[in-house]
Amino acid sequence: MTITRIETEQAPAAIGPYSQGVRAGDYVFFSGQIPLDPVNGEMIAGGIEAQAEQVMSNMGAALEGAGLCFEQVVKTTIFLTDLAEFAVVNEIYGRRFPGISPARATVQVAALPKGARVEIEWTAFCG
Question: Model confidence over 85-104: pLDDT tens digits?
């Protein structure tokens, strides 16, 4: 099996020693996206709505960079610093998956990189 690094300038660059995504066989495993502006690498301004929208935009850009789309996402994990914000994030997230929704876990964490309030990682099927 060939393992290939996925990288696109349309999504924020990795801020550590990891890849935006890695293709292994028929699957692409994407690292978590936080609400960074892909142009300047800075956190976007605004509350949870703006952060969730930016994460989903970054997710779409990373998928596109791998030649994939939201319909090919099979598993996600959402990390929130406050589960009270789940309904807002869930509504924004759900708009990107009008068909078959991916399997998903959502967890509350103590903190996320750069003070983000939401992060999403995912796996896509490309076979």
Answer: 999 999 999 999 989 999 99
Supply the pTM of this predicted model: 0.95
CATH classification of 3-125, choosing from 3.40.50.1390, 3.30.1330.40, 2.40.10.500, 1.25.40.10?
Answer: 3.30.1330.40
Burial class of 112 by CB neighbour count within 10 A (0 to 12, 13 to 18, 19+): middle
DSSP string, 58-96: HHHHHHHHTT--GGGEEEEEEEES-GGGHHHHHHHHHTT
Residue-wise pLDDT tens digits, 15-29 = 889 999 999 999 999
